[in-house]
Amino acid sequence: MNVSVTDAAPKPAETLSCYIQRVRNSLSLTQLELSTKAGIHVQTIRKIEAGGTSRLNQKAKSGLAAALGIPQEYLDAVVKKVSLEAITSLKFCPKCWTPGTTLDPMWTSLRSKYCFACGTQLRDRCLSCHEPIVSLKFKFCPHCGKSYKQTE
Ligand SMILES: [Zn+2]
Ligand SMILES: [Zn+2]
């Protein structure tokens, strides 16, 4: 589990300008350094941090996400002012996930279909009865009693 990714998650009601500034500062990057890393104009970053823009085009979004080491979904959540849960889903790798622990953001990203570590297709439901996962605290499916972890 990558702690820095968790720390970099947007806080509820955090604005885009605060969020970019906070993550940039946590990485000790200047606006200029960030713009170089992200491949976008420093003016764009100044404008974002000054609160002058609340939207990101695809280029800025992917550049900033890569430079700040955060999933693009985090930026989507801030821009759309929705919770992370609304744009991610409870998905997990049945081989790598230890049921009862938090999920890696690499799995829960809406765009992820396969596990980044082992290539197994991600699941969002019980392998045996196909009921969706209701809580990450559960180790066993409440509908059929089977473990969420694939064992073989
Ligand atoms: Zn895996
Ligand atoms: Zn089940």
TrEMBL record:
<feature type="domain" description="HTH cro/C1-type">
    <location>
        <begin position="20"/>
        <end position="75"/>
    </location>
</feature>
<protein>
    <submittedName>
        <fullName>Transcriptional regulator, XRE family</fullName>
    </submittedName>
</protein>
<dbReference type="Pfam" id="PF01381">
    <property type="entry name" value="HTH_3"/>
</dbReference>
<dbReference type="InterPro" id="IPR025874">
    <property type="entry name" value="DZR"/>
</dbReference>
<dbReference type="GO" id="GO:0003677">
    <property type="term" value="F:DNA binding"/>
</dbReference>
<dbReference type="InterPro" id="IPR010982">
    <property type="entry name" value="Lambda_DNA-bd_dom_sf"/>
</dbReference>
<dbReference type="Pfam" id="PF12773">
    <property type="entry name" value="DZR"/>
</dbReference>
<dbReference type="InterPro" id="IPR001387">
    <property type="entry name" value="Cro/C1-type_HTH"/>
</dbReference>
